[in-house]
């Protein structure tokens, strides 16, 4: 990496000479710096000779690249960790998009680090001095999404005592991260599409046109292409967002990164004042044998619990298995304890957004995260029949209808959707 300083000079002297970077330091920093100096390709060591041969052939066919002027500090702290081939692919894409404003769509299971990727794209790019603003579509009531995104004027609706700037205005000049975009209701999708096309919008209850300059990065744990096919997601919005797709691998598909991540999380916990712990070799084997349905987030939470609760400085395999057993895997629903799941959810919220524990929104946030999968699971269990699903949950069908509308759950022509009103006593 120390020889990166030669790259700009070489590019200036030999503008038609392609640059291929070979490095054993297989990190996001390496990939980004390779792109910044105008490298045609970055190859992490070790690599097969045929890979290098193809890279050289492609470089010769394409010709030289123009180098960038600004180089980032080599020691800049970055949030993404992993040296697996899957993560190297992710790093390459990030390196190619940080210097432009192309819209990025990040896909991956929950806990794979989608927001970390979005933050890396922002922090490494020319907008890094401007705000990074995140909004989770799944955590906002349907009727408030447009006010959250675009802001509202005083008196726009009951309780709107003052004008509030929306997330688009808050992110002006920077990056707006639209998390769980697949949960956005259709009417909000339509308005978002217009904003992406024009860069202009009006606040809720306002008449003045507001223009902002923001980069859009979206993320989802859903199959948006399937949602497009079923009419749940606008096709034109999908293509507008999916300019540069990034797919994050689940942790079970990058097992060689588990030890590196686990040690990093223990070191991070120690830096925050928790007891310093080490991992025995058999503990690493135990970690590698787990399926990690919660992905990197699950691993991080496990390491933090072990840092606090382990009796020994060196954590062994028994401690790993015991702790994982206490927090039953989501892949084993029979062994899942609801209380543990809620406590784990609160741990995640405390880690991701500590202020949320004291801002008066925690109850609604937890209930909101539990309510959607509960309703979806019961509708699926009862063949999308609203009446039977409502009875099974012990609520009135009209209450269920209201919750479906509020949560933006579209069940199409579900049985019971247009049936006569059932005047049952309200039990909720």
Task: Tell me what the structure shows.
It is a single chain. The protein is an alpha/beta fold. It folds into four domains: 1-97, Rossmann fold, CATH 3.40.50; 100-249, Rossmann fold (3-Layer(aba) Sandwich), CATH 3.40.50.300; 251-333, Helicase, Ruva Protein, domain 3 (Orthogonal Bundle), CATH 1.10.8.60; 362-428, Orthogonal Bundle (Arc Repressor Mutant, subunit A), CATH 1.10.10. Helix content is 45%, strand content 9%. A hairpin with an 8-residue loop joins strand 6 and strand 7. The relative contact order is 0.08.
Radius of gyration (Å): 24 Å
What's the count of strands? 11
Number of helices: 18
Query: Could you name the CATH topology of the largest domain?
Result: Rossmann fold
Structural class: alpha/beta
In one word, what is the shape? Answer: globular
Q: Percent of residues in beta strands?
A: 5-15%
Query: What is the CATH top level name of the largest domain?
Result: Alpha Beta
Instruction: Give the ordered list of helices and strands.
Output: HEHEHHEHEHHEHEEEHHEHEHHEHHHHH
Main β-sheet: number of strands, strand sense, barrel status? Answer: 5 strands, parallel
CATH superfamily of the largest domain: P-loop containing nucleotide triphosphate hydrolases
**Kindly state the mean pLDDT as a whole number?**
80
Quickly count the domains: 4
CATH architecture identity of the largest domain: 3-Layer(aba) Sandwich
